Amino acid sequence: MRILVYGYGNPGRQDDGLGVELVNQLEEWVTEKRLSGITFDNNYQLNIEDAELISNQDLVIFADASEEDIDDFCLSVVKGNGKLAFTTHSASPAYVVKLCQELFQKDPLVLLLHIKGYEWDFREGISTQAAGNLKAAFKYMTAILEQPETALTSLDKLKLC
């Protein structure tokens, strides 16, 4: 199974860097565990070129900070129905999936991990409260990466938003 974990956000905007920090921690953990088939990437925002990147995967997990009214973190299934918008995150996960389907005729399972953030000022460092959410998301994601078949076959067992 080919898995991509892709964090995006701006580490210079406090909690907006949650997705990037999660990827950094997971990459270190996967290396220590010597797990295979898992790759990592991160960026300030998703780009249309990422459609090709996800086209070669069975499971893609995007990770991003969230301002939504959620507890600590949750997952959502990403469908290919997004539109391109010129905002902080130029291409939404849904738009990247749509491009992947249209350009490469591939349809990997794509999940978005929403990690609750609280502080968005122009400075580095994750807030104390968000750090707790990051820790919980990390623990949850390690379980998924150790048993990825569960994510593919039992979506109802995931912590969905």
What is the residue-averaged pLDDT?
92
Shape: globular
Strand order, main sheet: write it out: 2-1-3-5-4
Q: Count all strands and give the number.
A: 5
Beta fraction of the residues?
Answer: 15-25%
- Uncertain residue segments: none
Biggest sheet details: 5 strands, mixed
CA-CA gap between termini: 25 Å
**Top-tier CATH class:** Alpha Beta
CATH superfamily placement: HybD-like
State Rg.
15 Å
Count of the domains: 1
Structural class: alpha/beta
Explain this structure to me?
- This protein has helices at 18-33, 50-55, 93-104, 128-146, 148-153, and strands at 3-8, 38-43, 59-66, 73-77, 109-116.
- By secondary structure, the chain is of the alpha/beta class.
- The chain has a single domain, classed as HybD-like (Rossmann fold).
- It has a five-stranded mixed β-sheet.
- Helix 1 (18-33) crosses helix 4 (128-146).
- The radius of gyration is 15 Å and the shape is globular.
- 40% of the residues are buried.
Detail the topology: elements first, then pairings:
Blueprint: E1 3-8, H1 18-33, E2 38-43, H2 50-55, E3 59-66, E4 73-77, H3 93-104, E5 109-116, H4 128-146, H5 148-153
Parallel strand pairs: 1-2, 1-3, 3-5
Antiparallel strand pairs: 4-5
Helix pairs in contact: 1-4
